[in-house]
Design goal:
Layout: E1 2-4, E2 10-12, H1 16-26, H2 28-50, H3 54-64, H4 72-100, H5 104-116, H6 124-131, H7 140-159
Antiparallel strand pairs: 1-2
């Protein structure tokens, strides 16, 4: 289904790239939550097993010149780092959108309250209420028109 916005810009919501970005945004809160839980879990497990914080241990290993290749600790660290890099990439793309796109500030707030804020809002009315200080006279219709535009603009940054 193709949805048309003002000024002859169109958003092709059937485009797989759009759906990849939309899926990424829909899972953002869960990914952040899971990453935070995983980091805390690894830290606790490490402290129990080695009776030291990870930071202190890594500092001592680094100073001693030890090699952690192939260890359980290295695998945990790589997994956490991959997840963190993906979230950082998305956050960086959102900041580029916010600072460089002609509707960047509006798109940022729409994406933030729709997908990125730590607490998911209950419904569109709550989102609109949160948007009002940032976007004057925003209606549901405008929100529903601008949200896919924001996702599409973010897609172009993420995937080219």
């Amino acid at each position: 289904m193709k949805q048309t916005s003002s000024k002859n810009h169109s958003v092709d919501q059937s485009n797989p790239v759009y759906h990849d970005t939309y899926r990424l945004l829909k899972s953002y809160r869960d990914a952040v939550w899971n990453l935070e839980l995983e980091v805390q879990h690894v830290k606790r497990e490490f402290e129990i097993e080695y009776e030291s914080s990870i930071d202190d241990f890594l500092e001592s290993i680094y100073l001693a010149g030890a090699d952690l290749n192939g260890s359980k600790l290295e695998n945990y660290a790589k997994s956490i780092e991959r997840s963190n890099q993906m979230l950082s990439l998305l956050n960086s793309a959102v900041e580029i959108l916010r600072n460089k796109h002609k509707f960047g500030e509006q798109y940022y707030w729409i994406l933030y309250y729709s997908y990125l804020s730590p607490q998911q809002l209950q419904n569109t009315d709550e989102i609109i209420e949160k948007l009002e200080p940032h976007i004057t006279n925003i209606s549901k219709r405008t929100y529903y028109r601008r949200r896919p535009e924001a996702v599409q603009a973010l897609s172009s940054i993420l995937w080219g």
